[in-house]
Structure formats: C-alpha cells, structure tokens
Amino acid sequence: MTEMSSNGTQATNGNSVHSNVYSASSVEEIRAALAELGKRDASVTARLDELLATQKDLTRQLGRLDLARAQLGTQVIATRNISNGILAPAAGTAHRISSAVKRLDREQAAVKATLDVVEQVAELKSCVLGVHGSMGAPQDWETAASYLHRASKIPDSVIDGAFAEEIVPTADVPDPPRQTLEAAAESLCGLFVREFDKAAGDGDGAGVTRFFKLFPLIGRSDVGLDAYGRYVCSGIAARARNNMSGGQRREGLFYANALTKLFEHVAQIIGGHEPLVERHYGPGSMTKVIERIQMEADAQGGLILETWADERRINRKLTDVKSYPFNFLVQSFMPSQKPSGTNPRTGSPAPGSGRTSEDEGVDMKEVDALLNESAVMLGRWSLYTRFLAAKTTAHADNDAETKLIVPAFVAHSTLQKKVTDLLLEPFNTMATFFIRRSVEKSFQLDEWPSDLSLNPNKQLGSSPPFVTSAVDDVMYIVNQVLQRTLSTSQKGVVSSVVPSVGRVLGSDFFGMIQRRMRDESYPKAAIQGALPPEAVIIQFLVLINNLSIATDYVKRIVRTCLGPSTQQQQNEASKSAIAENFPFGHEATAVERTLRNVEAGFESKTFELINEAIEVMLKQVMRPRLRPVMIETFRDVDYASDPSDPGSDAADEASASESTVPQRFERGWQAFTLPIKRILTPPAYEKLLAATVSYLSRTLEKRIWSYYGRVNELGAVRLERDIAGIVAAAAKGGKYELRDLFARCAQMTLVINMEDDEWEEVGKLDGAKLEKETGVKWRLDADERKRVRAIVKERTITQGWSNGRIEDASRLLCRAESTPTYLPTIDTDDMLSSLLTTLSLAALALGHTPKPYCSCLTDAEAFDLVNGFRIVASIAPGYEAVANRTLSEDFISISDGVNFAARIPLNTTETTSRAQLLEQEAQLPPTGAVRDIFVSHTCDTITWYFEFATKPLPTRGIAILFVNAEKKIYKSYREVNNAALLYNLGQPECQPNFTVSVGNQGPAAINATCKSCVGS
Fold it and tell me: What residues does 971 pair with on adjacent strands?
C-alpha cells in the first residue's frame, strides 16, 4: 500500500530501503535496513488500524444517504406530475394571451399614429389657410404670424409627406404646404422689417415692440435680433454724439464722464430690454444683442478715448515723463561733502540742484489730473466689463462661486485694445513717474522736527513721533497711488504700478535715508574718547524713527487696501473689496500677493537697516555713556569687609549702603536712556534697549569675575542684591524677557551663595540631569561654576562672630529677602532659608538665640496687594476671585466710618471673615475708579491713602493693611470721608462739612519705598 501512494514518495523510500538491504556489505548495514523496515511496517499498520476504526462511521453515513435518496425520489415524481398536469397548460394559455395583447397594442399604436398624422395634416391645412386668409384683405399680421408659429410645431416629416401634399393644397392655395409656408414667412419677414424700421425712425416705441415680438413667431429670430440691435445702436450713437458735442468745457473729468454715460446707457438698455428679449426670443438671446451693442460701444468709446488722448496730449506727456532726469535723486547718491550745518532742512547734495530739478520737470498737477481721469475711466471700463460678463454667463452657470470670465467679444474688441494703448500703459508709466517724482520733491522740501534735545529737563518742541516731513509726504502719496491703482480694478495696472511703488520705496526713499545716516548724521565723535555732538545724535535718532514709522505706515496702507481679514470675512459672510473688484479668475489672489510682496520687501530692508543703526548707536553712544556709569556705580564698593574686625562695623556699613549701588546705577542709567527713549519710537527703543542690556549683562559678568578672591560670604549676599537691583533698574519699562539676558549673572550669584552641601549636590551632577534635578536651565558649564564658586575667599561663618554679628547677618538677609531677586527660572527661597539656617546653627553654637528673621514685602508684592484690595473695595469685575487671592479666610475689617455710613454701631468689627466681606460688598453700589494718592509699606504693613471717583464729590480715605506670612491681608483699619460719602448717598445737609483742602485734582500720588522691619 505504501508503494501505491499518490505522490510516489513512499514507493521511492521503499525502493531505497530494498536496495539498501541487498546492497548491504556488513551486518551493521543490514541491521539498519531492518530497523528502517520495522519503522515503516509500524507506520503502515497504524494507518490501516485508523482506517478500519473509521469504517463503521463511513458505513453509517452511506446508509443515511441512501435513505435520503429514496425520499427525494418520491418528491421528484410528485413535482414532475404537477408540472406536466397543471403548469404546462397554464403556460401555454398565458403565451397565447400575451401574443394577442401585443398584436392588439401594435394595432392600437398604428391607429393612434395614423390619427396623429391626420390631426397634424388637418392642423397644417388650417394653418396654411389661416396664413393665406390673414395675409389677404384683413392684413392681420399677428394672426398670420401665430398660424406660422403653430405650423412650425408640426414635424417636418408630416409637412413634407405625400399625404400632406395631397390633402393640404386647395384651389386658393394650390402649392405644397412647405412652399406656401416658406413664402408666407419670407413675405411677412420683409414686411416686419420695413414696419420695424419705420416705427424706429418715427420713434414709435409701441410699434417697435409690436413688430419685434413677431419675428420669433415666423422663425426669423436672427433677423429680429439684428433689427433690434440696429435700432438700439442708433440710439447709443445719438446719445454719445450728444454727450460729446455739448457746449461744456472739456476740462476736468469731461471725457471720463462721457465714457461713463456711454457705459451707463448701454447698461440701462441691456438691463431694461433683457426681460422682453428673453421672454419672446428665449433664454440666452440677449447675448446676441449684447454682441451687436458692443460693436457700437467699441466705435463710440474708441472715439472718446482718441479725442481725450489728442486733447490731453498724452503722447507728449509720456515723452516728457520718460525723459525726466531726476537730478536730485541721482546727485543724492553720488559722493558729496557732508553739510556744514548741524540740522539741515534738506539733504540736498549740491547747491542749486533742487531748483534745477524743479524747473526742468513735468507739471505734477497735470500728471495727477491725468492719472485721476485715467483711473476713473479704467474703473468704469472694469465695471462695464464685469457687468457684461455677469449678463453673458448668468444662464450658463448659476453657481454663485463660479469665477467670472471676460466674454470673448469684449476681450478681443477694438475698445479693449484702445483702453490698453491709451489708458492702461500711459497710466502705468505716469504712476511710476508720479511716485518717484513725489519722493524726490518730498526730500527736496524735507523739514526736521524742531526743538529736540537730549536734556531731560528741556521740553520737546513738538509731539511724537519725531520724523522728518518727507515720511508723511511720501506715505500720503503712496497711499494715494495704491488706492487709485486699486480703483481701476485692472490686474495689468496693479501688477505694474504696485511693484514700481515697492521699487521706489526700496531704492529711492530707503536709499535717501540710508545715505543720510551714512554721510550726514553718522554719530561719530570729533575726537577720540569723546561723545558725538548732540545734534548729530538727534538727527540719527530721527532717521531711525523715519524707518520705523515708514514701515508701520506701509503695513497700515497695505492692510487698508486688503480690507478685513479672512476670519472677519467668514464671520460677516461677505467678500473682501479685493475679491469684489477683481472677480475674474484668480486675479484677487494675485493682487493680494502683489500687495503683500511690497510690504514684505520694504519691511525686510528697513528691518536690516534699523538693526545696523541700533548697532551704531550702541557702539558710538550707548557704550561710551555706560562705561562711566558702571565706574561710578561700583565706586568705593568693598565686598570683602571683615565682620570679625573689632574696630569695624562691617554689617552696619553694609546695611547702610546696601542700596547705594542700585541707586547709583539707576541714576546714571536713566540719565542717558530716558532722553533717547522720549525721542525714539517704542519699537526702535525696544531694540536699542535690548542691545544695550545685552552689553550690560556681559559687562556685569566681567565685573563679577573681577572680584575673584575679594568677596566674603556677607559680601556675596550684598553682591547678589546689588546685581538684582541693577537688573531691576535696567529692565524697568522694558519687556520681561530682558531679564533673561542676565541669566548668567544671576546664576553666578546663585552659585556664590550656595551652601556647601548644596554645592556638593550640584557638583555631582551635570548636563540634562542637573537641569532636571535643580529645575534651572544652566547657562554656566561645570568649569565656570567651579570658577564662580571660588570667587568667595572664606567659607567659615562662625569663626570670630559675636552675638551682634549674628543679628547683623540676620538683618542683612532679611533685607536681601525683602528685595525681589531677578532670576527668571530660579527660586531663591531655598537658598535664603539654607543661609539663615546656617546662621541660626552658628548662633546656637555661640550660646545665643537669634531673633526670628522676617519675610519682608517687596514693592511689587505691596502694590499687588493694594491693587487687589482696590478691586475688592470698588466691586470691579472679577473682585471675588481677586479677594480669594489677596485676602485671608479670617480677614477682619474695622472701620467706624463705614459703620457710621451703613448704620452699624460704632466700635464694632465691620467684617470677621472674607466671605462676610464679599457678601457685604455685593450689596453696595459700585464706587467707580479708585486712585492711589500715597502708598508706603514695611515688611508686613501697608499704608494706603486713596480716593474714590464718586460723584459729585470725590471720597478720600486711608487704610492700614496687615499682611501675614502667606503674603495675604488678614486685617485692615480703614476710614473714609463720611461728609463726602453721605452727601453722595443723598444727604445734602452734609455739604457744608465738605472742604476740598488739596485742590480739585487731589494730592499728587507718592510711592514710598519699603521701610526696614528690623530696628537699627
């Protein structure tokens, strides 16, 4: 059985074993062959046993199949009997009936078709006889036309059929029906044309309408539309000749108005007659009339443009414009001597050159008038084109989002060519000349702002922004040219003029300012080591303002031209002005891109030059002014005073002079930055401030390195406070990001003041792991941190310290904590706590219990709390959330003044919790704005003198606010002027008690600095 396997594998194996048995040459080979045969025998035996075991199931299944076959055989016999006995006769009967019905339907259709032909022939005969009769003596042209219209609905196969030719002719009308109808239609067409022309000549509108409606009935729509076109065109020509031949003076916008009237007349005709034409001639019929009208518009519009070009001498003007030399601009960019004056009125490069340029130029008023007239005519032509496009595509596609397409008969018309030759191209040339000549003229007549000074005590003679007159003049012209260009609604004009404006701004305008910065107003000292002259510095600052303000103007002009943003358009569901004026294809996108390119190109140039100018200011002005300030700031400052010296009082000296360094720096810093700040524009000053602060940060870093080995531990605390004060003064009035520039300095002072155990932990880590553990983005690498750590020469805090020194150190650290440490990403609370813990341990080692140190309010925290209390007191929006942040839950408020006004017994607590205060304030009317008059604070107490803007009398009051360790107000004593309060609440008898003792405007606001919380 194995050798009969289907795939032959077993047989092959068997033959192999058999051959091995007979080819064995040793006992081992024979034994191996016998073992293999034994395995095969066992396998075959197992397979046979398995087959025998399943034989019973196979037999059982075969029996079931035989039983099912017997049952199905019975059913087959029954089904066959039903089919032969019942269904076969029924199918035959149904087939016979169906065949009969189909034959009947065919006969019925044939009869119906015959009847239709007979009816159509009868209708044809009636129409032929009706036409013949109506064209006879009655001359009823409407009836004859209606008969012809009825006959046109009969199929040609019926009219030309033999049956119709046999039945329709009569003795009166012997011709075949087709010939009779054609002859009648031709005769009526000629008659209608003559009558239509006669009515048109007589001005008979009713007659024109009567015969115009009859042409489609006789199948002569083309003839009717042509006749109507001639009629309309004659009216257009007559109106146009009347407009041009009037006795008016041909000045100003005469030709623009004539062209406008022509287009308006055409639009009125199309809009007014379109319903009549479409109703009688079918949808789309008006397009043919429009094409015919456009031919007349070409002739009349071309005549207007040619007359305008001749009258205005456009060719001569273009020749003058193209040959204009621009002497002033050309000579301005040539090498020349610097002007001797310190504040020149203009930047004229050579004497007399400005006058020569004026005399040999083109009259700018004439150019402006021509541009204005051309823009009006181009705008009317664009509007007319959009109108025709809308009329000719209205029936083609009703999708409102479909872009309009200029009709071919307009795009290739003679008027379009003349518009291009006589309007568009001259406009592009003259507009480019106009903007460039305006720039030249503006710089010729340029005037500088007067009475500017770097003396902070001297009043400025004008109001900001401080720019030369050329900026306002040029930007006014730029806005005018761009608005005029967009009003033409011509993509060809925009794609030519707008880039030209950008080129003029980027070359002539920008180049003139750049040349002045380089040649006339460069802030360079006359002698080495001195500062540049004040007048030159002011001129340079004004030129920086010119670039900054010009950039802002260009952005605003482009934004105005583009209209609302895309988001606003979506919210308002309206199209932008650009999309409405440029509806063809993707013109709106191209126009918007062109405008944005001008803005981006000009901004990139000015941005680069402003940055270069800032570098010049930094190098020539800010750095020389900053060096003496830094020298004066750290004059006589010693961070290595020995507190153990019995003959010195180092801690008291440090306490007394701890604010000297920041105050010196702030005075010197503001002395040379504030005068520049009040002249420069805010964006330019921010750049200059950022560059100066960056240089200051590097200078401070060098200063810290210079103290290597000259700082002790208390000196390190003072150094940190001084650096923080300098950072605060430098960053005041600027963006908070300026503090990030001092990150290295801040981290240096942080490392200097670290405890030994903290330093050991930091020293073990580096890179990302260190930043993750400390939460600080380190700007100092490991080697730099080690060098910084070594700046402090001593690290033993308890040697030689007396009890008084511990108190001095506590007081010094208390004050250090009371001033904010300006580290953008570092929390110094842990550092201060570690230092104070060390001080406490040192004091205990000496057998002395130090007084608990305080956590003093900073100026910023004090004013933040006052601002929060003001919001709560004035019931401003969001006052509940502010109260939760500013007031403690057990807040107590005591005020006899408020109690008296609220009819609460005196000498009682006004409120005993924050919730009660909020409930009480919610029942009071809003008091209006609150003005600070005086604010002062100690470490845990704030004194606040304020004024409510109540009407008609202001209400002043004073409050003492007590602050807990969580920097929240837990108690307040406040009193208000009850006379004014009650008078405002409707008690006029209180008015005599009210006296304004500090003037109608109230006392001036005063902000006092923090007072020490530790006694001296």
Answer: 892, 962
d(CA 809, CA 812): 5
At 737, is the pLDDT very low, low, confident or very high (cuts 50, 70, 90)?
Answer: confident
Quote the radius of gyration of the chain (alpha carbons, Å). 52
Q: Are 262 and 300 in contact (CB under 8 A)?
A: yes
Domain co-membership, 534 together with 656: no
* Domain count of the fold of the chain: 5
Rounded distance, CA 480 to CA 620, Å?
39
Contact 729, 665 (CB under 8 A): yes
Question: In this structure, what are the phi and psi dihedrals at residue 289, rounded to the nearest 5 degrees?
Answer: -65, -40
Q: Which domain covers residue 17, as residue numbers?
A: 2-53
Residue of 870, 996, 857 lying closest to 930 (CA atoms): 870
In a domain, 95, yes or no: no
In this structure, are 392 and 424 located in the same domain?
no
For residue 826, what pLDDT band results from cuts at 50, 70 and 90?
very low
The one-letter amino acid code at 1009 reads T
**Residue 994's pLDDT is what?**
43
Question: What whole-number percentage of the chain has pLDDT above 70?
Answer: 79
875: exposed, middle or buried (Cβ count in 10 Å: 0-12, 13-18, 19+): middle
pLDDT in tens, 118-130: 877 777 777 777 7
**902 phi and psi, to 5 degrees?**
-90, 5
* Residue 293 CB-density burial (10 A; 0-12 exposed, 13-18 middle, 19+ buried): buried
- Which residues partner with 308 through β-bridges? none
How many CB atoms sit inside 10 A of residue 1015's CB?
5
The verdict on residue 237 lying in a domain is: yes
How far is C-alpha 729 from the geometric centre of its chain's CA atoms? 36
* pLDDT for residue 346: 46
Q: Which amino acid is at 85?
A: G
**Res 643: pLDDT:** 54
One domain, residues 874 and 958? yes
